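Tyrosinase copper-binding domain-containing protein structure dump, as promised
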Amino acid sequence: MGKGDRDDEFGTSSIGLTTGKDEKGMGKYAFGSWSVLLAIVFLSIGIAIGTFVDSSSLPFGISSGSEVENVDLTNEITEGGRRMMLEAHPLGGHVERHLLNHNTAYYDTISQLTVVKENGWTYSFNTASYHIKKDNGLVFYGINGEELEFPGDGSTTSDWKLTGVVESVAMDTFELPFGRRLTTEVETSLRATERENVSFEGQGHRALSASTKLCDKNHASDCKTCIETQDAWCSTNNWDSSCIAGCDGPTKYMAKGCKEECAEPPVVSVKAKKTKEVDKKTPIDCVVGDWAAVTGSCSVKAGSAACYEKETRSILTQPQHGGDQCPSEGNERLVECVCEPVCGDGFLMPGEECDDGNAKDKDGCDHNCIIETGWLCTKEPFGLSECTNGKCECSEWGQGVCQQGTCLPVKGSSLTIDCVSDAQCQLSKCGDGIQTGVEQCDDGNTKSGDGCSATCGIELYHSCTGGVGQKTECTKMRVRKDFRDLTAEEKSLYIEAVNVLKAQGVYDLIVQTHAHLTNKDYAHGSSGFLPWHRKYLLEYENALRSADPNGKYKDVTVPYWDWAEDTDLCSANGGCKTYDEKGAIFDSNTGMGGPGSFACSSHPHGGTIDCDDLPKDATGADIAAYKAECTSGKSFTNPNSGETSTLSACSGDVTWGSTGAKGITCSQTEMDEDGCKPIPDNAVGCVRDGPFAGWMSPEYPENKDNTKTCLSRGLNWFIDSQGYLTGSQRLTQIITQQKEYGSNGGFRAYIESTPHANPHNLLGGHIRSFSSPADPLFFSHHAFIDKVWSMWQNCHDHDETDKEKVSSKEYRGTQNGWDDYNTDLVFFFPGESSGEDKCDGGIAGACKTCVEGKDSWCGSNTWDQTCKNFCTGGCATECGAAGEVRPGTKLKPVAAGVNCPSCTQSYYQFDDTRLKPKFFHSIHDLGYELNADGSENLNKPQSYLYAPDQFDIKMKEQKAICDWTETKHHGKQWKQDSRRLAHDNNRQAKPVPKGFKHDGSNRPDDHIPLDENGRPVEMHSHRARKLYELHGQKTPSRLLAAVDDGTGANNEFCPYDSTGEWSSSYNIWRNDDGDLMIDMEYYYDDQGHLMERAACYCDDGKVWDLDHVTCVSIMPDDSVVFNSQDPDTKAILSYWYKLGNKLIEDSEFVKDEDSLQFSLDEMTQRECKLLYNEKSKIVRADDVKDGTGASAPDFTDKNGHSVGPGSRAKFLEGWGLAPCVGDNEKKCIQVGLADDPCDTSV
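structure tokens r here:
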């Protein structure tokens, strides 16, 4: 029968005999079915001689003449008595010999091993070779790569280790896998077992039962679960070396690793099958190749001050049949080498002055690993350089670093030997004028409020320059705050500046600019209202900042008066009695004072003060205290300056303006018990308390020293006499619902009418006239109106529109050529009289006729200032006045006494050059103040922002309402103008590269490069942190935030903080051709070459720190407001939630914006009901729609002279806010637009 016939007869259960050689020259052994007969014979012999023969393996794989013996190696080697054998010694006696140290023939006949583990898992394999280790250990090698090791002396059964287990190998015959690696522990010969292998039906092994916990993705186990839980990447990919490494412990992707879960259970039993040797082979010795260095392996070895490279060699011939073993040192070794220094790798080597683990400048060790001037760096060979910067305080100031009481010179230092050894050396500290790595700034002092705090941190609203190793210079940013939120020092400085400006005569000139007829006609009731007053406020603020030549007021800004917040406080507390009850700005000690004085008052309305006609008591008698002050004056201490003076008697002085508030009568009991003070109808009084007490307010500054007109306010500030000021809910409604600027409708008309007009109309006195700026309240009131405009612009993203591309929705004039976008704002000043002064009511002529035609009262009375105003206004030609001039011809630096005999020197210059509305479109793009020669002063930017108050911060949190605070998007231009890097001045723009990932560029996950396995590449800063950990050193604070990708290119993503506290992004915009453009910036690469890259800007209102490493906040944290324990703040937050969020949450609409639109009107109406409730007893007087308001006559004084509009409707009409009639759109607003929502809600 041929070979093929036998194969067919026995199928796959029998393997044909072959004697051919394989490619390596090794014989392949196979066994035919004839072995069964021989097996039976030998089985009989085995039984006869008493040797146990395992008949279960006889049908396959037993060589003719072989017998099989089962041996329990657990007993034989580990625990049994046969482990020790006695041998006769030549000198007598016996020597104890270990079984493993002799009788190798014992192991030569082991052909198969079976291992059983504690969990019942069983594995059998055919052996190929073994070697005996020098510590009496033993290693068996299986033909498929298995290794079974017994450690040696002192070991137990559980110490047996099986590795290299395979699942399935399809093999028809068995090849001895020589060429295995050796370990350095091999001492005796590696021997091949000299016997035929026992067959496992086509495989060299078999797993008999159960399953072990292996480090393998394909086996469900605790190990697999642990690996894929700690490194999610392993769960969706084939396991790479990093996954497998997790089986042994922590990796760079696994914080803990899975060593315990992946450990295999211990061995409990090892059994062997021994076969009788049938052939003796010629021993073959081990042959190895020469050592060869691994290219590129020369590098620093961690923990040693030397470089090493790897050398390897190969085993050319494996030892067999008892041949000589391979060399004990193995096939790999490390040898010293000379390696090149790599700047930034964290190992200081020859050729480097320092190496701090990065290639950055300004941290002591620059990108070329050269110590920077002013720094000291450690120089431990092969160590990580730690650089410090400071200042030694020795016998004389010298730059150095103080360590352990000794001043060590830094690079570039000129310290003398005496200074270096000075025992008085002190550590560098905050306030020494040198910023160190742990300081945000150091301006040479420990005073807060100057931009760099007492603890060397950059303060809110300040822009600083400098950097590590330099002295910090800070300037205060132009930020307008809520008066309520000013510090005591800020309030005092502002009020002081106002008083100084008043003393210079400049203040009254600014007032006259607003009152001038030509200006007031344009600036009210037109689209120019908002940009005109933005320009006007800016000029006033610049005048304040210029009031002291030494710069004392250089950082002063106009605080805004959030009267809507005052109204909300009243609502939240169940109502208020007076306007000043919750208004911080009216405080007599820290604010601007309250209503007019009873002792220096007139009625009805403004007029000459008569000390015999002051408010009277319940019996009708004069109140003695009032009359005493009126006739004799009073002692007064200014609450702001602390100066004590005498306010002069006011008899014969003149109050100004009017008031619609009726009188108050008091019974004697109310006066005695409740402090009720009787007030005549429409009473107006001088301001005699607060920091502006005693102010006199002339129309013409040159008459200032002779004026009799006092700063005036209404006496009756009781809310139940006139009604509340507009609340925040109404403002929210206007800001959100009005999408366009409009002409006689839209946002401008809505905000100018009732919200803007009410404070003017209801407080009375000067502020109810066109001379309203005579009262400093005016500027804070209009600062809030300007803020609301900026809020509306932010809300609808109008503020970022280029001023050259503004559309009609952002600004629309009422008449072309008058108040359109590109026509000059109307700013004029009356000219000087030419020749004879004709402004005299006693001189007949064209001037007298014109004036009396303008105001009939002037024809029958001695001309007052109102009459004289026509001489330079509407009757300028007839009265001989020169033509109007620009304000800059009068508002300019002049010597003392020029503006008025008692005026001090002034330093302010009005800017007549920028007058178009487009120049004032955005508060973030207002250019710079001018120098004396008309050039721009780049150190004095005019752009500003409004600091958020409680109202803004709460609205920011309210669902569906737009965010109008200065955050990530808004204020971009302002923030760019405040850049603090030198190279920021070298900006340019380029087209966005094709494929550039600009969408969501502030999200780093979109832009982090991946490695070959698809895993994120470790960032430079993370690597730097590990270097410090490697050297056992504390990580510097500058590395606690991730800052870049290490390339400096910024073409994939912008810097961000790994903790999520800040991020940065690109500025991408479209040019005139519609192409996407991106801002670029210059930087120096690692070779010192000037390069360019995409410029990154901090998000969320933050700015770069002084070294362009971290984005820092210059805006207050919202949590300060939300966590405030101030009772007023808590009341407002609670009120807004109940009134706003609750309505939105209860809405049935799905979309937030729909819920908001549905809720805004209801929120406003509920606000009205809270204000005008039964408890407050306040009734809303609607004189706009009651049929009498629009036709009410003007208020007149005792002499019958008109002093102001006689109703709210007439007040609005006089300010150009009457309802439009017909096709007219100029100086009017749409019908019903001025209606107060509270008119119909209560």
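The mean pLDDT is 75.
lmk if u need the other ones
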